[in-house]
């Protein structure tokens, strides 16, 4: 693939999708639950995924698409070119706040992240990265992540993980919350990765993320020198749900060894 | 006081202060710690408080000012007209993120909140309310808060309060986190109250807030039918630090009785 022209194509596609999402607030939004009562999906999530997929199939017929809402391909490996798409990451925010959600898209070639996009739709803020070509916030190049220590770090993590849960020893997360400078939670994995890539938080931690939540953000985070793995320190899983920690390189290992003990 | 002209005066003053804060990013910001290592203050917090106080003293010589940085009056009662000011609420965000902080201002007459302002400086978003005159987001009137039940509510609360702490039985907060639809944390009490007043979250809870953190937001929240008390259900404390819960009226009592057990 010719990376520069794909980048221009994708930016244009994402902006058009964002326009459609903003327009959707003029119409009725139908909210349903998926896996559990708080796992929301709307007709707009589905419409936007189908919009992306129809364009990608027409313009890139050899590529495969792995999308949250299931209109894409069944993906069991990352051979060739795979687009990993979340049409609306942060659907709960979309429904309750009408803001703080994002389009998340990563394009991978044989498992290597080549292009990553996170579009904060309501703020019209685009974060993007090109493998070995830099990461950008509205076309302004982002700096390499600063080194921090735990005591001066701000981490993004949901309060859910401070209580007993099936994924992680919560005594470790409680200790982490006590040791860091601050904890934030914005309700969109994609936006939280964009905030990490742009230096507003120093780590993002979640016990349960899907490939489309992290695919775009991982390209961004790696391009500014950050690390992204599961809690065992392995490459973040792009085929199924897994634990996830992304951080600047100076605290990533410490988060794994000192605080995040997988059950 | 003539409320309409004071409202116009204050809006203009806040916008000028916001301009000064945005300009401060062009210069060096000096960061210090206050009560503990993570309780930050900068030269800009101090400059902005002094800016407000000099203007208020000149133009409203009979009024008193209660400000976070201590340049105002010593306040031991709320007689007469008192301005409660936080020049930068969310100083940690100001320092680390250069966004997600606010100017917070409430004007009280004999203990009654007459005017409330929360200015999201970087987004140029002004939330304000006039006692019995409505609450507004950028001059668009806000609706009365919707009724919710706990299971469909989004609450703003820091993850800190899910671990053992001196203020509240954390088993209760962990249960709350499990029972609600979602938990968010933005790192600025003023902004979180503005988000409550504008319906983006359904409650805001903190174990330790100061009068200037909540004075402006309380006018907003009450004007859209919300309730704001300490954990004992008493009027929120405007003279000293206290626990704090603000919510729509359909869940406020349930938060107090079922979840927030003060130690």
Folded structure, characterized:
- The structure is a homodimer of 263-residue chains.
- With 263 residues, chain A is an alpha+beta fold.
- Chain A has 2 domains: 3-141, Fructose-1,6-Bisphosphatase, Chain A, domain 1 (2-Layer Sandwich), CATH 3.30.540.10; 150-259, D-Maltodextrin-Binding Protein, domain 2.
- Chain A is built from 7 helices and 14 strands.
- In chain A, the strands form 3 sheets. A 7-stranded mixed β-sheet of chain A has the order 3-4-5-6-7-8-9, sandwiched between helices. In chain A, strands 11-10-12-14-13 form a 5-stranded mixed β-sheet, sandwiched between helices. In chain A, strands 1-2 form a two-stranded antiparallel sheet.
- In chain A, helix 1 (3-24) runs antiparallel to helix 2 and helix 5 (189-197) runs parallel beside helix 6.
- Chain A is globular.
- Chain A starts with a helix and ends with a helix.
- The A-B interface holds A 37-38, 92, 96-97, 99, 151, 154, 157-164, 174, 177-178, 181-187, 195, 200-201 and B 37-38, 92, 96-99, 151, 154, 157-164, 174, 177-178, 181-187, 195, 200-201.
- Chains A, B: InterPro entries: Inositol_monoP_metal-BS, Inositol_monophosphatase-like, Inositol_monophosphatase_CS.
- Chains A, B: It comes from Planococcus salinus.
- Chains A, B: Mg(2+) binds at residues 68, 86, 88-89, 213.
- Chains A, B: Its EC number is 3.1.3.25.
């Amino acid at each position: 693939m010719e990376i520069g022209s794909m980048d221009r194509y994708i930016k244009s596609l994402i902006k058009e999708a964002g326009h459609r999402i903003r327009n959707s607030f003029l119409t009725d939004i139908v909210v349903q639950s998926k896996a559990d009562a708080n796992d929301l999906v709307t007709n707009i999530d589905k419409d936007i995924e189908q919009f992306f997929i129809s364009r990608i199939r027409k313009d890139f017929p050899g590529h495969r698409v792995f999308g949250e809402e299931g209109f894409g391909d069944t993906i069991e490996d990352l051979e060739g070119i795979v687009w990993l798409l979340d049409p609306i990451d942060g659907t709960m925010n979309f429904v309750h706040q009408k803001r703080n959600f994002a389009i998340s898209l990563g394009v991978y070639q044989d498992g290597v992240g080549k292009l990553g996009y996170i579009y904060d739709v309501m703020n019209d803020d685009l974060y993007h990265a090109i493998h070995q070509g830099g990461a950008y916030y509205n076309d302004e190049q982002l700096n390499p992540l600063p080194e921090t220590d735990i005591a001066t770090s701000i981490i993004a993590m949901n309060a859910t993980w401070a209580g007993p849960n099936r994924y992680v020893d919560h005594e470790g997360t409680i200790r982490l919350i006590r040791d860091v400078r601050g904890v934030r939670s914005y309700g969109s994995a994609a936006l939280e990765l964009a905030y990490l890539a742009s230096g507003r938080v120093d780590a993002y931690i979640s016990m349960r993320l899907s490939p489309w939540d992290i695919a775009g953000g991982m390209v961004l985070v790696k391009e500014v020198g950050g690390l992204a793995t599961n809690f065992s320190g392995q490459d973040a899983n792009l085929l199924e749900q897994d634990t996830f920690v992304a951080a600047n390189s100076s605290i990533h290992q410490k988060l794994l060894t000192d605080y995040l003990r997988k059950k």
